[in-house]
Amino acid sequence: MPVALSSLILLPALLRQLPLAAKIVILTYDSTYCNDDLLGVSPTERARIAIAGVEGGEFWHNALKRPPRPTELDIVEKDATASLARIRSAHPDIAAILLECARFPLVAPAIRRAAKLPVYDITHLCRMMLASIA
């Protein structure tokens, strides 16, 4: 199952909202850590998921340094939109984007403008939870 405070909790519900022929991309900091055990979906649903990370980009390299080096938001945006462009060229049937990295909500508006697709992130999950208890 997905980890407790991850936007991946939204994944099964988002898949059910999309047409069966459509895919969702999970955009993450490092796609090598986003394995099937974290997704919490059936094998059939897994076929509708593409995963992309920003490995190799400046944001990725800066975060690996000790101590981590801060990265300007325009660099995070550039790395995320470049990764998204690569995965979309391989999967033209992507209909929605789920941001898994906690830094990505800050650049979600730019990703939404560039992709012209619905974009979801951890802030959507937090708002749902707060609305349910408020």
From TrEMBL:
Q: What is this protein called?
A: Fe/B12 periplasmic-binding domain-containing protein
- From what organism does this protein derive? Bradyrhizobium vignae
